[in-house]
Amino acid sequence: MMKLGISRQAMVAALFGAAAVGTLSIAPKIINQEAGAQPIAVEPPGGAPMTFADLIERVEPAVVSVNVVSEREVGNLGDMEQFFEQFRGFPGFDEFLEQRRQQQQQEGQEEDDQQPHTEEARALGSGFFISQDGYIVTNNHVVENAVQIEIVTKDGKELEADLVGTDKQTDLAVLKVKEKGSYPYVKFGNSHDLRKGDWVVALGNPFGLGGTATAGILSADGRELGNDSPYTDFLQIDAAINRGNSGGPTFDLQGDVVGVNTQILSPTGGSVGIGFAIPAELADEVTKAIIKDGHVSRGWLGVSIQDLTEDMAEAQGMNDHDGSIIADVTDGSPAAKGGLQRGDVILSVNGNKVTDATTTTRVVGKLIANTSNKFEIIRGGKRQTINVVVGERPDDPNARIIPASASADKPDTAPEGSTMDSLGATFVPLDAEARTRLGLDDDEAGLVISDVKRGGVVEESGLQPGMVLLEANNQPVKNVDALQKVIDAAKKAGRTKVLVAVRIGQITNYRTIDISEAE
């Protein structure tokens, strides 16, 4: 998957699908239109159109090219090392760091060359007027780190623009042209009115060519493209969109904007007929909030969550697996203050049922910051309701504070391990050094997996040496006896799975262990 319209490099570490929770507030409509001003409207054709020429001729004046000069900082080893620090303890990670260091030495990289410095970059994108007084919608990734933004209209007029605000989570941004005037504009429609197979037309600035139109159909809707976009169900279209189309509009046959082009799926970098657009109703809501406040406020819990799988539900004696499980709670977060805990299964929020991590993210994100809300959860097999005052989502909800001693040398002597033949693994209790390195509390209980037998239960469950078991079926495991008691209780209850909280580096993730063959 690739963003459109800007050349940049990104490092993505997608480990276990944990999601940060959050979304947006609704702001008033744009009101800066002159009396009698009307958005462009097009009479819909009766049946399949013989041509899109009339539609394009009417809406094209509202579509612009966006030329951006931006600055980016490169060679910041301090930030890179801090990023790497959270993965210490992951199997093979130390070897990766050593290979990286040796490769840098072999390539003759000088320390001075790796010091932070600023580079200028240029990007091309698309956008469209949504108001007569010059507000323009485009993508966040087009204008990210912009120091200069120039708009080029259909008639070739070049206009300077200011950045009003952005929303990285939905990849939307709003610009405002500096020169006062009366600009042709279009309005948002409703993508829910589209059916798969309906015609759509995309306009934009592919490869800097400007004024380019392509036509296709709605291929699908409700597409999820991973945790980078937790608030967006994308439209999939087959109208050709390429680099430079980012931020451009996709129209229905009435001339309403039904989507904002943002990404493509391509093995070549060019269009292969799989493009994605942000739905109009979401874009409308976000852009109004940006115009009003300069940003989008989202409700925030401060938890990492996962989908509740069928095996996880079975391990806890649940009849179905609708819901999401809390994998981690940030210290001092609204969730921590409200009493939510690791291992809680969220079933509903204010009576609104959630089915997985994505729906939980979106429901919570629509809550108003600093309001009290009812969370129905299952904890220890029992249903209960907890009132939580949600906060406002910070700019970086996943930021971690790396302890100063996280890279301290390991003790000369390692504690003696205990082998559980039934699971095919050897465990060592957590010590103070391991807790610090993993970012755990001083009193956190847990068992470090020090050795795994090939073909054993633990290996078959996907667990490896270096991982840490923190809990089993919501019970802390400070030694192998505690773990064995949980397994015995699960077997007595007729269950074949045990739910375990696993710490890998500084990330907690839930897994299940199949105990049906653990003798």
Morphology: elongated
The stretches of 5 or more residues where confidence is low (pLDDT under 50) are: 5-28, 401-413
State the share of residues found in helices, binned by percent: 10-25%
Return the CATH topology of the largest domain.
Thrombin, subunit H
Q: Distance N terminus to C terminus?
A: 45 Å
Helix count from the secondary structure assignment: 11
Biggest sheet architecture: 7 strands, antiparallel
Structural class: alpha+beta
The CATH architecture name of the largest domain reads Beta Barrel
- Overall pLDDT: 82
Count of DSSP E strands?
A: 29
Name of the level-1 CATH class of the largest domain: Mainly Beta
State Rg: 26 Å
For the record, the count of structural domains works out to: 3
Tell me what portion of residues adopts beta-strand conformation: 25-35%
Considering the chains and any ligands shown, give keywords for the structure:
519 residues, Thrombin, subunit H, Pdz3 Domain, alpha+beta
What's the short story on this structure?
This protein is an alpha+beta fold. Helices cover 18% and strands 33% of the residues.
Draw up the topology in text.
Elements: E1 2-3, E2 19-20, H1 53-59, E3 63-74, H2 77-85, H3 93-106, E4 117-129, E5 135-138, H4 140-143, E6 146-152, E7 158-167, E8 172-177, E9 199-204, E10 212-223, E11 234-237, E12 249-251, E13 257-264, E14 275-279, H5 280-293, E15 299-300, E16 303-307, H6 310-315, E17 324-329, H7 334-338, E18 345-349, E19 352-353, H8 357-365, E20 372-379, E21 382-389, E22 391-392, E23 418-420, E24 425-429, H9 432-438, E25 447-452, H10 457-460, E26 468-472, E27 475-476, H11 480-492, E28 497-504, E29 507-514
Antiparallel strand pairs: 1-13, 2-16, 3-4, 3-6, 4-5, 5-8, 6-7, 7-8, 9-10, 9-12, 10-11, 11-14, 12-13, 13-14, 15-22, 16-17, 17-18, 18-19, 18-20, 20-21, 23-24, 24-25, 25-26, 26-27, 26-28, 28-29
